[in-house]
């Protein structure tokens, strides 16, 4: 897993070694990219855990990822501070477990969030023609582990707008618009969907990307706010 420490302006990689059964992570190591010492450093972690799945997000120098406590089987969100290289944990309450399992971790105004579709069955991090609303959980207080819950209604014409496409979470813009992208676009050209959540009913806009033929593609990966950097790091 990859993250950036804005204090020391360092990129770091967190590695977890697991057994052949794919569940139990035994060792945690960290590597600082571009540092004179290119060796991996062993880390101590007080709670043995494994990812579910290990899809991380880095917010203000803290790496967050979904996890399960090996001993208690309780659902957790692991917080790895890239500056201090210390672990902390957020216990997930019953009301939040479904969102954790099927939702997408997001950066919402510098806070950790979970985005899911309320009406789309198993694929709850996606939005389809069957969806009538989306839900956003935001971690308002890390120390107290307090979350806010927001449900936003999709417009009445949503079904006609999205057609048969499944739209998956792609990211959040700097103005807090949630960006969705189709996994297998039914249109000949690629497009993005922007959800403005400043109102109870979502304001939707579609942006077509000219010059990209996606008729032969199944999955497209979207990166927001990409800045090209040609600097090479030796590992």
From TrEMBL:
UniProt-listed Pfam families: FBA_3
Domain spans labelled F-box associated beta-propeller type: 1-227
InterPro entries: F-box-assoc_dom_typ3, F-box-assoc_interact_dom
Transmembrane segments: none
Name recorded for this polypeptide: F-box associated beta-propeller type 3 domain-containing protein
Organism in which the protein naturally occurs: Brassica carinata (Ethiopian mustard)
